[in-house]
Amino acid sequence: MLQKILMTYYQPLTPTCKMKTSLILLSVILLSLATKAQTVRDFSLEDLNGEWQNFEDIQGEQLTLIDFWASWCKPCMKAMPEIEKIHKHFEGKGLNVIGINTDGPRSISKVLPLTKALKVSYPVLSDINNELMQDLNISALPTLLLINKEGEIVYRHEGWALGDEAELNEQILKYLK
Amino acid sequence: MKKWFAILSLILSPFLYTKAQLSGTSLMEYQYGQLPSANESSFNALYNKVKLNYRYQNLKVKAGVQYFASPYNDRNYIEPAWFGANYRNKGWELNLGNFNETLGRGILLRSYEIHGAIIEDLSYRSKQYFYRDMLGASASYRGKNYSVKTLWGYALNNIYPPSEGQRLRRDDEIAAISGDYKWKKQTIGAVMMRANNATHSTNYALGSLSGRLFPFLNYYTSYATSLDQDNKAHAIYTSLNLSLDKMGVSLEMKNYDNFVIGSGINEPPALIKEHSYRVLNRSTHVLQPQNETGFQLEAFYLLQDKTMLTFNYTYANNNFGKSFKYNELFLELSTYISSTETKFFVDYADDPFKNESDRLSAGTTIDQAIGNNKGLTIDLEYQTFKRDETSNQNYVAGLTFRHHSRFFIGMLSELSNDAFVTDSEKLWLSGHLKYKLNQNHSLQLFAGERRGGPACSAGVCYEVLDFKGVELRWNARF
User: Fold this and answer.
1) Residue A94 sits in a domain of what CATH number?
2) Which chain A residue is nearest to residue B301, measuring alpha carbons?
3) Considering only CB atoms, which chain A residues are within 8 Å of B31?
4) What domains sit in chain B, N to C, each tagged with a CATH number?
């Protein structure tokens, strides 16, 4: 069945196209096998009051949870109260939470009043140029990263649905020794 | 093929044993289908972009490629892209090659990358990733209370696909220097920029002031102007943010006149709400920086835990000899009823630019949890407006089932009798499926007919073409 579907769509492609497809597929598979867990290099971003913050200064003793979000992203709004609960629960227990807001110039003005209304108490930094997003290969919002003290991304979660908080808590406890 | 395999293996093997790091992303989209409005039969098309990052201590080197393959040779291309190096150390940051830069909140220059957006233009019918970056060099230094930056390069004009060549795509040469100084929670900033292309060159200056006046009040204001007497232009943008207990307010004002730089490399703040609801996202007012004044007021109020009220009022006035006044009022309630998350919205707008009056939109999103790890989402939206005394309606109905946030399956139907879109009542029906294999790979399948039109994502608007057929996407990270 699978072979039949593949042949139906693969056969009409030109020989050059077939070669390109095969090469790219092969490269991606090889790279997937060859690369190790990505690490975070130190970064500096402005917080919502315009003060510069370094990752090294605000990361957790054992683990850091980074939440990439934007004001126009519906699932991000759903996740934020749950992340605030995690922040409150694990505060002082080795885990720090950092919010990275990715709003561009169009909506950046709404970010501070929104976080205040949502009672977000963890630090929120602005990645207005989306440089950190690119650095860490973020391709969906929200994306949650768990980073260990060596700077390795040990867990990555994209999107948010009701019930995801249980999985996130489980992962935090797994890596929080 | 064996030769390529050997070369790739040779290239990749050192990364297994060194402290240097290789990472990257790939987005591949395969389509079999057609534009319903075009006189053509269905065909196979493949788009792919791959980006690679190599990092060693403070140095990052990147490279990428995007290509499009179809039965039509004039649409096909293979383009090396996203090449560059970035070095960061002790306040210094250096970029060489492709890099992103935004100056003066987008008033002078705006780079962006809209994740997952692959655009196709009706004229060229070639696909490309939706982004705008710079090709050149930049250097910046940040001290305790100040920062300075200088840059030079060519901005990407993404109206032209890669099949049209680099000369057309990078016609705008930019040189700029900027700096800011912080003093007692206030920041003063200045930018000087020269934009040069085949038709003319213009110098611009921008001054900005931002900071916190009280613990509950922040502000940002900027004024930009052209320095050339024969090409007068200005842009004024101001925002105030008020935070009072459970309430947050954002008030923004704009006054733009003749402020389109080069081929449109800038994107001043639009002050138009970016909606995630389909009927509203499609109906957005697109900013006209040639001449636009107006303001936007948005307020959030947390009624109780997880219950939020959002209010937005937008006013925009375009004066092109004749005045076009855009008004929009939006209200949304987001709350939980037991384990069901619900959102209700109502929106009223007058849009003389699109010749749409008394535009009323309303809808709901209901997200029902089923047990601990399953759920059902229902979207219902309705819109009605008048155009030349004719009444037009749009309907949206969607249903999605999910298992964890790993597997999604659903269907979407849209119905419209909008005379600008269809001669008679038309139904768009589609099914979609998403499966996340693991943390690094996900597959998305679409089958059916997709309604096109304007779309806005991450603050940038673009045009989506209609499509009828099958589409498969593979997102990979490594």
Assistant:
1) 3.40.30.10
2) A117
3) none
4) 71-257 (2.40.160.10), 270-478 (2.40.160)
Q: Do B269 and A105 touch (CB under 8 A)?
A: yes
Which of A105, A162, A164 has its CB closest to that of B341?
Answer: A162
Cα-Cα-Cα-Cα dihedral sign, residues B55, B57, B58, B59: negative
Q: How close, in Å, is residue B477 to chain A by CA atoms?
A: 7
Structure tokens at B97: 């090659």
Q: Are A91 and A30 part of one and the same domain?
A: no
Distance from CA of A100 to the nearest CA of B (A): 15
Domain of residue A65: give its range: 44-175
User: Which residues of chain B neighbour A68 with C-beta distances below 8 Å?
Assistant: none
How far is residue B211 from each of residues A161, B141, B181, B220, B297, measured CA to CA in Å? 36, 21, 11, 7, 19
Q: How far is B149 from chain A (nearest CA, A)?
A: 14
Count, residues in chain A? 177
> Could A162 and B308 be called an inter-chain contact, meaning their C-beta atoms sit closer than 8 Å?
no
Co-location of A22 and A101 in the same domain: no
Q: What percent of chain B has pLDDT over 90?
A: 77
B213-237: pLDDT as tens digits? 998 999 999 999 999 988 899 999 9
The predicted-structure confidence for B343-390, as pLDDT tens digits, reads as follows: 999 999 999 989 999 999 999 999 999 988 899 999 999 999 999 889
Instruction: Say whether both A10 and A84 belong to one domain.
Output: no
Query: Does residue A50 share a domain with residue A122?
Result: yes
Residue B356 contacts by C-beta under 8 Å, 6 or more apart in sequence?
A: B283, B349, B350, B385, B386, B387, B392
Our count of domains for chain A comes to 2
Task: Test A113 with B276 for CB contact under 8 angstroms.
Answer: no
Is A156 in Cβ contact with B405 (below 8 Å)? no
With CA atoms as reference, report the closest residue to B42 among B28, B32, B50, B52. B32
- Total beta-carbon pairs less than 8 A apart between chain A and chain B: 228
Residues paired with B154 in a beta bridge: B135, B173
To 10 degrees, what angle do helices A15-34 and B2-12 make? 30
A89 lies in some domain = yes
